[in-house]
Design brief:
This protein is α+β, with helices and mostly antiparallel strands. Helices cover 55% and strands 10% of the residues.
Length: 598
Amino acid sequence: MSWDSLPMIGVAVLLCWVFYAFAREKFSPDVVVGIAVAVLLISSLLSPADVLGILSNSAPITIACMFVLSAALERTGCVEALGKWLSRMGGGSPLRTLFSLMLTAMVLSTFINNTPVVAILTPVAVTLAAQVGSKASKMLIPLSYATILGGTMTMIGTSTNILVDGVAREQGMEPFGMFEIFLPGLIMAAIGLAFIMLVGHRLLPDRESLSKQLRPDQSRPFMTELLVPHDSPVANQSISAAKLNGDSGIQVLKIFRGDEELSTPVNTTVLNAGDRLVLHANMRDFIELRQTGLLAFNHEQPANFETISTRDVVLAEAIVGRNSRYSHRPMRDLNLTARYGIHVLAIHRHNENIQDNLDDFQLQFGDVMLVEGTPSQIRKFADNGDLISLNTVQERAYRRDKAPIAIAAVLGVMVLAALKVMPIEGLAMIATAIVLATRCLETEDAYKAIDWRILTIIFGMLAISVAMRKVGLVEGVVDQVMLLAPYMGPLFMLSFIYLLTSFLTEIVSNNAVAVLLTPIAIGVAYQLGADPRPFVVAVMFAASASFATPIGYQTNTFVYSAGGYKFTDFMRIGIPMNLIMWGTATLVIPLIWPLFPA
C-alpha cells in the first residue's frame, strides 16, 4: 500500500461509516452527512471551495421548488378533491376500491412529489377500508407502492429522478427530457399494479388499527361539564363521597371554582357549591347516574349535579408529518392537554405501543399517536402541529379559487420542459414565484413544505461524491466492478447496477445511493464502451422503486405505523415486487435505450 492510496482508503472508510450510521439510525441522516463533510474538510480531502461548488448543482433547487408546487396543489384543494371523489366510491368491492385508490395515487404522483400524496390519501384509505369492510393494512402499503411507481414516470415525479439527472449533467451527459422515462416507467407501473391486484393483496396482513387494538370493547366515551348546585347534597363533600372517581368509572378531570382551576383533583378534594366539574365517562356511566337520581337534566328534580354541557369524545389516530412541530421534542414540553384539551393515550412506532413513561418520549416522522378529545380539539391539535388525522379527512380552508393557477403552474413546468423552452430548474423557479405571488399558498407554508433535511442530505452526499472523485475512489470502484466484465456481458452489468442500487436503497437513503452510484454507473458504461444513458436510468429507477423495507423510502416509512405493520410485512410483498421490477427493468431499459446505439 502506497502513501498515495491513503486518501482513497480514508474516503472509503468514511463512506462505510456513513452507510453504517444510516442503517443504525443513532443519528439522523442529515447529521450523519454533516459529520462526514466536516471530517473531509478537517482532513483537507475537501476544500471550502469544493463544498461551496456543489451549490451550483441545479437539482436541489429544482427539488425545493417542486416541494412548493406540490404544496400549492394540496393547499388549493386539488388533491383533497380527488380524495373525496374516492371516498364516494367506497361502496364497491375491496378489490375495486383498492384499484381505484392505487390508480389515483399513481396518476397524482406523476405530477407532484409522492410524499404529500400519501399524506393526503392515507386518511382517505383508512375511511375507504372501513366502508368496504376491509382493513387499513390492506390499503396503505399498496398506496405507498402506487406513488413510488407513479413517480418513476416523469422527471418531476420524485426528487430522485431530478437528482440523478443533475449528477449526470455534471458528468457531461445531456439532460433528460420531461417524459423521456415515461414509457418504461409506465410499463413497470402497470406490471407492479397487476402484481398487487392479482397476488400482492393476498400477502398483506389483515390487522386492526391502533385504536381498535388498544380499546376494542370500550363503550363510546363522553366528556361532560357538571355544576354543583347551591342546594346540592354533595356540597362540602369529597369527590369520593360524591361517588365520583371510584368504581363508577367516572373520572373528574378538572374543577373550576370561580377564577381558580384545580387541574389535578384527587378523591379527597372537597366539592363546593357553584363548582364546575369536567368529567370523563362512557354512556353507560351516565345512564347509571341518571337512574340513581344523582344527575338531573333540565332542572326537572333536585339532584346532586346539573348538566352544563356534554360533548362527544372520540378516539383518533394522528400520524406525525414530515415537518411536524412536535417531532424531536419530549412529550412533557409539548403540554398538549393544557394547550388543546386532548389526552395522548398511546404512541405507536415500529410495531411497538408505548403507553408508559411518555414524558421523555420524543416523537419522530411516521409515529402514530392515539389521542382522545372532542372532534374540534383533535382538529385544532392536528392542524397546529402538522399532523395527519387517520380517522377522518381533515377539513381545511382550501383556496379553491386558486386551484386553476396551481394546476397551470405545474402543467406549465411539464409542458415547457418537454418542449425544451427552458431548463426545468428555471421553469420550476418561475412557477414557484407565480404560486406565491398569486397567494396559492403563503410564504410561511412554502418554507414549511420544503423538506430541508432531504436537501441537507443531498448537498452532503454531493460533497462526499466530489471527494470520491478527487481521490480516485469512483475509478477504483469502477475498476473492481469491471473485473466481472470478461465473464458477463453489458446486459448483465446493467442488471447488476440496478440490483446493487436497489439493495442499497433498502438500507439507506435513496437519494444518497443515487448520488453515489450515478457516477459509478457512468464510469462502468464508458469502460464497456456502452451508452451511459441506460445505466443512469437503471440507477434512477432502482433508487426510486424501493419496496422491501419501511426505511428505504419516505412513503413506506409514513404508512409503516399508520397501518400497524410489522417489518416483515414489507419484506413479504416487497421482495417479490423488487425482483419483478428488477427483471422488468433489465428487459425494458435496453429496448428504449440501446446499450450500443448505432
